[in-house]
Design a protein that fits this description.
alpha/beta, N-utilizing Substance Protein B Homolog, Chain A, Rossmann fold, 8-stranded mixed β-sheet, 21 helices, 14 strands, 45% helix, globular
Length: 475
């Protein structure tokens, strides 16, 4: 177990302590009498079980939760919402919540700390189930909050510092640093000034919108069609085919645009990569680490935006067969006949060497840029999530580059925001391959001119990404 998770579980003893107390014992100890108190106690035990299971298994919290709900179909929609939003809220604010002090060393105090974490999560997230929250506060022997998160709307006060004040008012003897919301090992690999750190933490502590990308339909027509299904949407200031679907959960299978292949879910930060690739209508591209093919679809869509009869094509490769099967389904739904798949079978190139106008290497990485979507991951990983990837990333880039024709384009991308996986990998590659040279890029969100482009989540309410574009010398 890595340092970050170890410190989280040892400094926050509540999960281990509550697990040692049975439900009946808790009922007796807490004297839960009202219906709300009994429901609050039941929720707390379920959430505690899921929280501990996630930390101990190091499996993604959404997978743990999905398995739980499949096995416990008794829960209604409200139950599921309380459990889901509290669980991920606990992880979103875990760096602060684990600092909540114990009143004494007794078993009861440790149990009270767990209820305090639940209550403060609800306060920080402004959860609406007030009867449940009130019961948790009572179990924790907490007074009503001196500052209410509901009053934050419309305030000029920085949202994160306002939430920090909520905790400090509840526990005035304890300090809750903003940087505690990400593990210490992460800051060792994100060497930026305090202002950037605080802006990053602020974005990591907020929920990202659902970003989509339109294919073969205008924004105006897409918005009108979505409005018919009572889905509010807006465009982007940066890409004409990007669409913001808000923060509410959406059943995609019930969305007509999605079923017609006119809408794909793709984060705005991820869309930066395809726009940096900028494939021409008649070019041949290889997506060397395609996964389920979101960027392969984007490359083909960008070709068709230039010419509805675009002759260009995309070959998608991955070591896993299931994602490639999913890509085939998505391409068929979109009507994209010029996308094919070719799995990696060994270290040898699965495609022809020196053939492609462009090669995209969206390399496996620590995914630190997607932490706001997966708040549990920042506490499940340790520094090795960053430090162990660079050699693999360089190896994939070094092999995939052989598929680029002379004069062609090589694009390296990750959803990491750590230089170890980004700038340092590109620099190591260029030191070995002087026949490739970096291109100058313009950051789409900041207009910064750079050769190593990092998208930070707060710049356009997106995931974090990195991209570099290189040209192979010769014609």
């Amino acid at each position: 177990m890595g340092d970050s998770t170890t410190s989280a579980t040892t400094s926050s003893k509540a999960p281990l302590a509550v697990a040692s107390i049975g439900s009946e014992q808790l009922h007796q100890a807490l004297n839960a009498q009202s219906g709300a108190e009994k429901r609050a106690l039941s929720y707390s035990l379920t959430i505690h079980q899921l929280f501990c299971q996630t930390l101990q298994s190091k499996l993604p919290g959404d997978r743990i939760l999905a398995d739980y709900f499949r096995a416990h179909k008794k829960h209604g929609s409200k139950d599921r919402r309380v459990i889901r939003e509290t669980l991920f809220g606990l992880f979103r604010w875990h760096g602060w919540l684990k600092l909540i002090p114990l009143k004494d060393d007794s078993q009861q105090a440790i149990t009270q700390q767990w209820f305090a974490q639940l209550a403060m999560t609800a306060a920080l997230e402004a959860h609406p189930w007030l009867d449940i929250v009130s019961a948790w506060r009572g179990f924790a022997e907490l007074d009503e909050p001196a500052i209410n998160a509901h009053t934050d709307s419309g305030s000029d006060t920085d949202a994160l510092k306002f939430k920090q004040a909520i905790l400090e008012a509840a526990f005035p003897a304890q300090v809750f640093p903003l940087t505690a919301l990400a593990p210490d090992w992460f800051w060792a690999h994100f060497d930026q000034d305090l202002e950037i750190q605080e802006r990053l933490v602020s974005s990591l502590s907020s929920r990202p919108p659902i970003w989509g990308r339109l294919q073969g339909i205008s924004l105006a027509k897409a918005k009108a069609k979505l409005a018919q299904q009572e889905i509010e949407a807006s465009g982007s200031d940066y890409f004409k085919d990007a669409i913001n679907l808000g923060h509410k959960s959406i059943n995609l299978n019930a969305v007509a645009l999605y079923n017609e292949g006119k809408l794909e879910i793709q984060d705005l930060g991820s869309q930066v990569i395809g726009n940096i690739c900028a494939p021409k209508a008649d070019e041949t591209w290889w997506d060397a680490c395609s996964g389920a093919g979101g960027k392969s679809l984007q490359l083909r869509s960008l070709m068709l935006q230039q010419d509805s009869e675009a002759s260009g094509s995309v070959v998608a490769s991955d070591i896993r067969r299931k994602p490639l099967e999913e890509l085939t389904k998505r391409a068929k739904r979109a009507g994209f006949s010029q996308i094919s798949t070719q799995p990696w079978q060994s270290d040898a190139l699965p495609v022809a060497a020196g053939y492609f106008d462009g090669v995209l290497v969206d390399a496996p990485c620590s995914c630190t840029g997607t932490w706001r979507r997966n708040p549990d991951m920042r506490w499940l990983d340790d520094a090795s999530a960053i430090t162990d990837k660079a050699s693999l990333q360089l190896d994939i880039l070094s092999r995939a580059c052989e598929a680029v024709r002379p004069g062609g384009v090589l694009v390296y991308a990750t959803c990491s925001i750590s230089p170890v996986e980004n700038q340092e990998v590109v620099e190591a590659f260029l030191a070995k391959r002087p026949d490739f040279s970096l291109q100058t890029l313009t950051h789409p969100f900041t207009n910064e001119v750079t050769q190593m482009l990092t998208v930070l989540p707060y710049q356009a309410d997106s995931d974090g990404m990195f991209v570099a574009k290189m040209i192979r010398q010769g014609e």
